[in-house]
């Protein structure tokens, strides 16, 4: 394998987005990679509207004089122009790459390829699927290395695009830093319906794959159970599901919550419920375990691989489940899982994969 005599340019688009699992992975792993890279190996390339850019010791921060508001434009014009001009090798965290300069690129999952029907509601959904499919294929065929977050996702990438499995490195995702924040119990003043009561909690982007249909149907079947649902709608959500949830007396739609508010709810809930029918990794249940919550999760895709025997499993197509009875069964301690899946270890796995390419 030849050594690269080029600087790695880390795509800083995540520093302009709302904080979700992908962005958190980018933020934290870059901080840990800063401990690994020598001072002339890598740089973080961010747009001028980037927020909370870290102070790094070895990774140089380069701010381009443009904003990233429309991310394909940032990725395919501004960032790509920078990479090509400087002959850098990009490192991308967000299921994308500069089309004419693939490098070390993440594919967290190939959801838009495997579940095309979830992207038929609007013209925007169709464009999201089209762009995603182009990026998946380009990364699969041309990137030097592909990083992904589970063996399940690696298998789907290799089988879908007929590529050498050795090019796909499973680095997993993980929890890091969340336990350092203080829980914001004032959320219980805002959500008066759950004050002093037992409740179940679910969190995630309110997209089709998160399977809000299960929550709605289960809440109808068990009207004495209270559910708190947090998350921000995105274009590929099924609108009738949100309407149904908003109409149910035992469902509290909490909207987008801060990490401190989420921590408060996870610490007090009867269990964190995650009925998603498709996940590349599925980070929220790991966060719930780190806060001491029990987790009730789908038995599909990557979730059994990640959570093993420390979770309570449900069929995402079957909402008629007695959760109280289910939670009486014993499950394993999550200690080994929480030790295995940290973002420091994600960064170590990334660096280990990249290191043979480096000359610095």
Gross geometry: globular
Spatial ordering of strands, largest sheet: 3-2-1-4-5-6-7
Question: Which structural class best describes the helix and strand composition?
Answer: alpha/beta
Please give the radius of gyration in angstroms. 21 Å
What portion of residues is helical? Answer: 25-40%
The arrangement of helices and strands along the chain is EHEEHEEHHEHEHEHEHEHEHEHEHHH
Largest sheet: 7 strands, parallel
Low-pLDDT segments: none
Summary keywords:
360 residues, 6-stranded parallel sheet, 14 helices, 13 strands, 37% helix, globular
Give a summary of the structure in a few sentences.
By secondary structure, the chain is α/β, with parallel strands linked by helices.
Written account of the structure:
This protein is of the alpha/beta class and 360 residues long. 37% of the residues lie in helices and 15% in strands. It contains 14 helices and 13 strands. The strands form two sheets. The protein has a seven-stranded parallel beta sheet with strand order 3-2-1-4-5-6-7, with helices on both faces. A six-stranded parallel beta sheet has the order 10-9-8-11-12-13, sandwiched between helices. Helix 8 (239-247) links the parallel strand 9 and strand 10 (251-255). Helix 1 packs across helix 14 and helix 7 packs parallel to helix 8. The chain is globular and about 65 Å long. It starts with 7 loop residues before the first strand and ends in a 6-residue tail after the last helix. The mean pLDDT is 92.
């Amino acid at each position: 394998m030849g050594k690269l005599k080029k600087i790695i340019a880390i795509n800083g688009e995540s520093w302009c987005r709302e904080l979700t699992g992908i962005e958190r992975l980018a933020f934290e792993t870059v901080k840990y990679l800063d401990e690994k890279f020598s001072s002339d190996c890598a740089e973080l390339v961010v747009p001028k509207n980037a927020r909370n850019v870290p102070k790094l010791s070895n990774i140089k921060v380069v701010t381009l004089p443009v904003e990233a508001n429309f991310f394909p434009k940032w990725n395919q014009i501004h960032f790509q122009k920078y990479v090509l001009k400087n002959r850098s090798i990009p490192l991308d965290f967000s299921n994308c790459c500069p089309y004419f300069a693939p490098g070390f690129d993440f594919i967290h999952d190939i959801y838009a390829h495997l579940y095309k029907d979830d992207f038929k509601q609007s013209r925007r959904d169709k464009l999201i699927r089209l762009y995603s499919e182009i990026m998946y294929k380009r990364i699969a065929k041309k990137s030097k290395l592909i990083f992904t977050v589970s063996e399940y996702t690696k298998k789907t990438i290799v089988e879908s695009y007929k590529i050498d499995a050795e090019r796909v490195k499973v680095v997993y995702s993980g929890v890091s830093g969340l336990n350092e924040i203080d829980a914001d119990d004032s959320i219980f003043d805002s959500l008066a319906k759950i004050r002093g009561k037992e409740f179940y909690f679910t969190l995630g982007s309110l997209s089709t794959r998160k399977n809000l249909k299960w929550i709605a149907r289960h809440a109808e079947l068990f009207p004495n159970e209270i559910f708190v649902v947090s998350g921000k709608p995105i274009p590929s959500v099924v609108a009738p599901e949100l309407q149904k949830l908003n109409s149910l007396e035992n469902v509290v739609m909490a909207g987008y919550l801060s990490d401190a508010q989420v921590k408060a709810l996870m610490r007090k809930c009867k269990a964190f419920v995650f009925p998603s029918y498709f996940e590349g990794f599925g980070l929220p249940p790991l966060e719930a375990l780190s806060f001491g919550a029990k987790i009730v999760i789908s038995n599909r895709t990557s979730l059994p691989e990640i959570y093993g025997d420390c979770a309570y499993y449900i069929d995402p197509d079957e909402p008629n489940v007695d959760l109280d009875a289910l939670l009486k069964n014993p499950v394993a301690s999550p200690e080994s899982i929480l030790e295995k899946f940290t973002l420091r270890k994600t960064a170590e796995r990334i660096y280990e994969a990249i290191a043979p390419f480096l000359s610095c």
